[in-house]
Amino acid sequence: MSIVLNSRLFLKACLASTLFLFLFSCKEKEASTPIKTADTTQAAITSPDSLFAKYSLDKIKLQPGFKINVFAEVPNARSMCWGAKGTLFVGNMGGGKVFAAVDNDKNGVAEKVYTIASGLNTPCGVAFKNGNLYVAEINRILRYDDIENHLDNPPSYKVIYDKYPTEGWHGWKFIAFGPDGKLYVPVGAPCNVCEPDSIHACITRINDDGTGLEVFAKGIRNSVGLAWHPQTGQLWFTDNGRDELGDNVPSDELNTAPQKGMHFGFPYCHQGDIPDPKFGQGKNCADYTPPALKLGPHVASLGLRFYTGNMFPAEYKNQMFIAEHGSWNRSQKIGYQVVMVKLENNKVVQSTPFASGWLQPGDSVIGRPVDVEVAADGALLVSDDSKGAIYRISYSK
Fold this sequence. Notes:
Elements: H1 2-32, H2 48-54, E1 61-62, E2 66-73, E3 77-82, E4 88-92, E5 98-102, E6 112-117, E7 125-129, E8 132-136, E9 141-144, E10 158-161, E11 176-177, E12 183-187, E13 202-206, E14 214-218, E15 226-228, E16 235-239, E17 251-257, E18 262-263, E19 269-270, E20 274-275, E21 293-297, E22 301-306, E23 320-324, E24 337-344, E25 347-356, E26 359-360, E27 364-365, E28 369-374, E29 380-384, E30 389-395
Parallel strand pairs: 14-18
Antiparallel strand pairs: 1-25, 2-30, 3-4, 4-5, 5-6, 7-8, 8-9, 9-10, 11-12, 12-13, 13-14, 15-16, 16-17, 17-21, 19-20, 22-23, 23-24, 24-25, 26-27, 28-29, 29-30
């Protein structure tokens, strides 16, 4: 009897031991297998249709043959620039961050968005040269070297210039490299309207190492977009008009500066033909360079680019796209769209809406375009800081 009991106890012990070893081996296997964490890139990767609905893109009006989708979700997306390897860098206004979006399979949707910088002071502007990313804070220009090879482990920045004004009012910056290899940096007026000193209300330029600061153009209240014509190399830029003169004046401006030293009127003259009630006394608007085009009162014209791609119909080649962020202090809102400006012989001949619908009936706003950028395949990207998205507008016959 005792032999039977001992046998049963022995069998139970063996089974328990076997079970323990089995569970332990499973636990070891589980622990040694990498845990798959939640995907923190874009929902667009798995559900482009849901993002189309999320951002109400069915309400966006485009010309026949054009369509729009979400390229990437990027918080507070502001200015954009391309890296040499096809990385889209995106500045940020409210969150102090800079992002990089990658679309390696070239399907028009970014697979991943990296945060490559954080804790910065309003890093709106981004520009790229010789493998390095330049970022504009309010008073500094930073450089991230060899950035496209280190998106997942960004290098520390180098300060190349830190003497820009510290005022936050119109202190955010759009930056871009010109055909001369210099970095162009607008400096807005630190006010609605005031008499600026020599470094405010202008467009400056510096060498890519931060040396050689000079003022290129003056009398510019707040430019948040500039580009050079792909054929003439001539600079064009937007300028936001002053507030508190009513709903319909002054207009925002599209200006062009073929040479250094031009003055565009602020604060003495607005939109080329309206003397300022205070600062315009004793001044003559004819003494200043008028705008190439009046864009509309308080439309908040920001980023601009010339279309250099081949996807769109031929009539779009070398024409200009401008993002209108939309009015904030007008009794009836306007703007909230992307317009196309047609040039002939370096003169503006036409301006028409290209993508609209972010302003809905009843002054309901479903998006605010900030910047435009031409992709390598010829699509047009549009950043939207209010919704935290970058849209892609493409064309097919």
